[in-house]
Amino acid sequence: MKLRAIAFALVTVFCIATGCSGPASGPPGAGPTGVANPPFEGEPPAEPYVYEGETGVYGGMLVIPTAQDPKSFNGLTAGETSTTGIVNGPIYSALIGFDNIAQKIDNGLCTSIESSEDKLVWTFKIRKGVRWSDGEPFTANDVKFNFDVAFDKNIDNSVKSSFEQSDGTLPKVEAVDDLTVKFTLTEPNAIFLDNVGSTYLVPRHKWEESYKKGEFADRALTIDTRPEDVVGLGPFRLKEFASEQRVLMERNPYYWKVDKKGQRLPYLDRVIFRIVPDMNTMLSVFQNGEVDMHWNVRPEDYSLLKREEQNGDYTVQELGPGYNVLYIMVNQNTGKNKAGKPNVDPVLSEWFRNVKFRKALAHAIDRQAIITTAFQGLGTPVETFCPPANKVWYDKDASVSYDYSPDKAKALLKEVGLEDRDGDGVAEDAAGHKCAFRLVTNSNNQARVAAATVIKENLKAVGIDITYQGVEFNSMVDALQKTFDWDAAIGGWQSGNPPDPVLMKNIVLSSGMLHFSFPLQKSPSTEWEKRIDELMMANARTVDLAERKKQFSEVQHLWSENLPEIDLLVPNYFVAVKNKVGNVRSSPLATYTYWNIDELYLKK
Amino acid sequence: MPSNATSIESPPDGSGMPSGSASAVVNRTPWQILWLKLERNRVAMAAMWLLVLLYALAVFADFISPYSYDAQDAKRSFHPPHLLGRIHVVDEQGNWGRPFVYGSKLANVYDKEYSEDRSAKYPIRLLAEGSEYRLLWFIPMKTHLFGVDEPARLYLFGGDQFGRDILSRILYGGRISLSVGIVGIAISTSIGMLVGGIAGYFGGAVDFGLMRLVELILALPSLYLILVLRQSFGANMSSTQLYLIIILILSFIGWASIARVIRGMVLSIKEQEYVIAAQALGFSRMWIVLRHILPNTLSFVIVTATLSVPFYILGEVALSFLGVGVQEPEASWGNMLQAAQNLRYLTDYSWILTPGVFIFLAVMAWNVFGDGLRDAADPRTER
To answer: Do residues A302 and A489 lie in contact, with contact meaning Cβ atoms separated by under 8 Å?
Structure first.
């Protein structure tokens, strides 16, 4: 025993010795640990962004788990969290920043932001001396290029619709000089700055050519792009991507923030996003110490982790009701696929597009049962996509609530013409079509799978026969966004950041890319969708908060009345972070534990 | 089985040759001999009766189980097993009576702690009325072997995440998990015998081709092959289709090893005089294979088949455990264990592992029984 202890001590000493001596004399870029001056390049900007919080120490590697491979490395156009959760923040920066805790916008890459009296002209002064992660200077033309791309009608992205003005136009963007960008709007936009803050910039010098050739949407910044071509303004740059294993990033030596002692950020040498496709595995790799944070602890795992807090040297934090709304929806798409066949079976489509059918579903589903079984009781039912945690905007009184009542559901189904005519327990219409369809969700999310099990049983009780299909997350995204080949789906919303309704335009507008029940409509297919579109567009150009709230309450009313999707519940949000990580300021808004990744450091 | 009245007085002789025994020589068929030898192997017999019991439980699942396999109750999610100290015979006044349970209240929804509600007691009734079902798939009935009155619910082995009775699900799940073995082995054995018989008897290019195919299948790691085959069928399937596909996939993997051994046996059998006689009489080659050669491999085949039933049971368990086999809410022992993939559930609600006990029992029973059969079928063993 004693011998082994000594041997262990020797090994430890040896490791520490090499760990300290190696990098001190090593060449720049060799990955220093605990060195005062990591290999930064050039000088920080003349007027750098100064981070005022606690000063950290340099060195070390942070390992963050993530559930899927990124679908691309395109921070500008990506909408799916598998991509944005990895690249937006760590690799790419927006023109201005946002503090998740203070819920406040900061100047970010600008020295000043000015607007005209009527809020129609905005002028951004960029810091002098900011460089991209490959060393090229960052100028106003880069900003202009990004908005040209985002506003291009041939490029699908989630930025465009939030900037769209009521006349269908988009703001005019000009590079006045190298360091000045001017936006000209035709009407005030309530969250113009928030929108600018969620547009993550890619370098013009790398992608202008590909954009001019019309290849930007499909061929630029894919997962096959060489790491050295993935250039951004974030604190880290891509070093290596191994599919289904990890995304490795190293410090961006040109990063433009300094701390109050004048030391340049970031403190961390490297960041690894480890791809852990299974939530159970994610839990155990966190408990084993293989990753340093767990930014989405499931309610059912909360008490398990809490018990081991001391032993595991980590802290579990409950962040209250989350922003992640769980919903079920039916496919209301009336379009046809490439083969000329309708996206949805016409029989099903007729039911799905009938609001009474959707109300029947809302009454048939026992939300409380889902909360108890799938979320260990740690959740709250919701009426719309706007969760109660969003205190400014949530309006329960304006929304229609659906109590759990199989009888009401059956009555509504009968009005649609669906009842069990042959006594087999499944309802059919007058022509004898059985009310049976597929329900899809991503099978790596056990809570969604559990919800599907409860919903299947709930719907069986009212005569609807569901075939559950668990699929991979990215193939679900494909079905929802590209092939439109699905009947019903269970999904979840993560709130935009900040949680302003206008940032949810993608979801709410009938023309939105994420209006999954019937996305990308040329013109609204129903009256209520039209009205919601109007309200949302008006909301975006109203500056008065009280007026905006009134409009958004009506949206919540129309939404819950017509149920484009049936919003079910929000689980409470939990995170867990190793105690060795410093400056952690977790938030229930994306990206949870690492939104301030440039400030995080490892305690010595 | 034929009469075994003589078995106690006169030890049967396995070799069929006159022995030194003084008792009258009884002529027995090889099957009788097999049975007599098997009967003396107590462990094998115990295994056999255990199997009979398990299969009977599965066949009469809807009668024996108090609830349907998919009857959820969210207010009793992860209800602890009544068998663990929640069945009482003495009430609060100290009176003895028939076994009863108290209703339970969800005391803590987060940790799923249940307290007993002592205000009312619910005796466990035999032949209780419950949900409707069809006994043996055609007799409509409502009576269950046992149960308690509403609103209480009986969870002898505990409840799962959705408040479904684990005992009921095990019994229903046994229908799938246990029958997969029998049906699968019937299919793969038939294919294996046919292919092995043809290869061995016909020889030449046919033999060469078939045996390379067999080797190809044997060379691939079976779990991966199973998963690839499963993926190729897609996800959009009813539970019946899934069940059949699981059997098909497992049989597709399983026939190869049987075919190879049968071929070896056929190679030696086809030199036997009675085969040459059959050839001389001008029977067709298929007829000779099917009628004269394959029946002689039967004792071997039965033993091999019995011993490989566990492969099918475990195959279904593996597929369902990995989420590509039997789908919720349908129950199988494999997909019930899927819940145990969640560390938290495994730690706090360990009764969800109960299906594992049944898998263990079934697999072990088949193995022990198969072993006993092999000993009994071996002419060289006397006991």
So the answer is: no
Q: What is the ipTM of this complex?
A: 0.74
Distance CA A476, CA A485 (A): 10
CB A351 within 8 A of CB A427: no
B chain contacts of residue A438, beta-carbon cutoff 8 Å: 236
Q: Does the predicted TM-score (pTM) go above 0.80?
A: no
Q: Distance (Å) from the C-alpha of residue A372 to the closest C-alpha of chain B?
A: 6
3-class DSSP state of A129: coil
Chain B positions in Cβ-Cβ contact with residue A454 (cut-off 8 Å): 72, 74, 162
A467: confidence class by pLDDT, cuts 50, 70, 90? confident
Closest chain A residue by Cα to residue B109: A377
User: Which residues of chain B does A460 touch, with a Cβ-Cβ cutoff of 8 Å?
Assistant: 70
Q: Provide the pLDDT confidence category of residue A4 given band limits of 50, 70 and 90.
A: very low
Instruction: Please tell me which residue, A131 or B289, carries the higher pLDDT value.
Output: A131
Select from A300, A452, A469 the Cβ nearest to the Cβ of B235. A469
B-chain CB neighbours of A283 within 8 Å are 343-344
Q: Which domains does chain B have, with CATH numbers?
A: 73-163 (no CATH), 168-377 (1.10.3720.10)
DSSP character string of B237-270: --HHHHHHHHHHHHHHHHHHHHHHHHHHHHHHHT
Helix (H, G, I), strand (E, B) or coil at A213: coil
Tally the residues of chain A. Answer: 604
Determine, for residues B74 and A366 on separate chains, whether the beta-carbon distance falls below 8 Å.
yes
| C-alpha distances in Å from residue A542, one per residue of A22, A187, A507 | 59, 9, 19
Which of A301, A376, A456 is closest, CB to CB, to B329?
A456
- Nearest chain A CA: its distance from B93 CA (Å): 35
Q: Which letter does DSSP use for residue A296 in this model?
A: E
Contacts of B75 in chain A (CB under 8 A): 372
How far is Cα A159 from Cα A151, in angstroms, rounded to an integer? 8
CB contact under 8 A, A457 and B323: no
- Domains of chain A, first to last: 2-292+580-602 (3.40.190.10), 324-572 (3.10.105.10)
**Chain B nearest CA to A377, separation (Å):** 6
Across the interface, of A300, A370, A453, the residue whose CB is closest to B329 is A453
A134, pLDDT greater than 50: yes
Of B236 and B212, the one with more pLDDT: B212
Scan for tokens 């189904």, then name that residue.
Answer: A413
* Planar angle of CA B145, B151, B154, nearest 5 degrees: 40
Question: Tokens in use for A313?
Answer: 């040297």
CB contact under 8 A, A302 and B110: yes
Rounded distance between C-alpha atoms, residue B36 and residue B316, angstroms:
34
SS (H, E, C) A55-114: CCCCCCEEEEEECCCCCECCCCCCCCHHHHHHHECCCECECCEEECCCCEEECCCEEEEE
Residues on chain A touching B348 (C-beta within 8 angstroms): 303-304
pLDDT tens across A398-412, in order? 999 999 999 999 999
